[in-house]
Specification:
By secondary structure, the protein is mainly α. It has eleven helices and two strands, in the order ααααααααβααβα.
Length: 239
């Protein structure tokens, strides 16, 4: 049993915040008045990658190929995936087929840069960044300006315990320190049998903490089913 069900709550909170912000902006421009950008997006794709222009711009030795050094630095991490014939250079055909890999590498920490760079509400984003900043300062228990693995582990334990305590505060209606099947809700109810490791018919705090501490399992490799030849993709209406 993974700890993902415990981590679901902050994700839902972020989604709700985004939806509220979107509704607020919608009310300002009127519920039925479309933006000019919406009309453009429906009329044509918002992004079209010009392979010829890309190759021309970065092919510094003008040999019709891109070496790893010629490829923009932010895209080099996928060079080997695009270079399918392993000749150390990318042809126009390889670039075209590997277009999906021509994206900068993203990191979870990018969320901070997104908040700073693309904010349309500085007061709101400053508040969110302050929450992050305060929490990071709490993680840095030795006050050396760095967060090490031990501090991260200790901080995770605090968060996990708080999530479990909040769940018991909400669900444990008779305050006996354990959850019955009748009290369980959501994923706890769905995975009740797995969480109840001692099979006593209840999920206690230790059992829930144990499940929340488990590391997520690796997802199986994604497989793509080839489309039969001569059959085109379904239109949006057909889907």
């Amino acid at each position: 049993m993974r700890r993902s069900f415990v981590l679901l709550f902050p994700v839902l909170a972020l989604v709700a915040t985004a939806l509220v912000a979107g509704e607020g902006r919608k009310e300002k421009r009127g519920p039925d008045k479309p933006r000019a950008a919406d009309k453009v997006n429906r009329a044509q794709p918002s992004y079209a990658f010009d392979m010829d222009a890309f190759l021309k711009e970065y092919d510094s030795n003008k040999d019709g190929y891109l070496s790893k050094d010629e490829l923009p630095r932010t895209l080099r991490h996928n060079f080997d995936k695009i270079d399918t014939n392993k000749d150390g250079k990318l042809s126009k055909e390889e670039l075209r087929k590997g277009e999906a890999y021509l994206q900068p590498r993203r990191r979870p920490s990018d969320v901070m840069f997104v908040l700073v760079e693309t904010s349309d509400c500085d007061e709101c984003c400053a508040e969110e960044l302050q929450i992050m900043y305060d929490f990071l300062r709490k993680l840095d228990t030795d006050r050396d300006g760095k967060i090490n693995a031990g501090e991260l582990k200790a901080g995770r334990e605090v968060l996990v315990k708080k999530r479990v305590d909040d769940l018991f505060e909400e669900l444990d209606t008779n305050k006996d320190g354990k959850l019955s099947r009748q009290e369980a809700r959501g994923r706890i109810k769905r995975y009740f049998a797995d969480l109840d490791t001692n099979k006593d018919g209840f999920v206690d705090r230790d059992e829930l903490l144990h499940a929340a501490r488990e590391k997520p399992r690796e997802l199986p490799p994604r497989t793509v089913t080839p489309r039969p030849k001569g059959k085109s993709a379904a239109s949006p209406k057909e889907r």
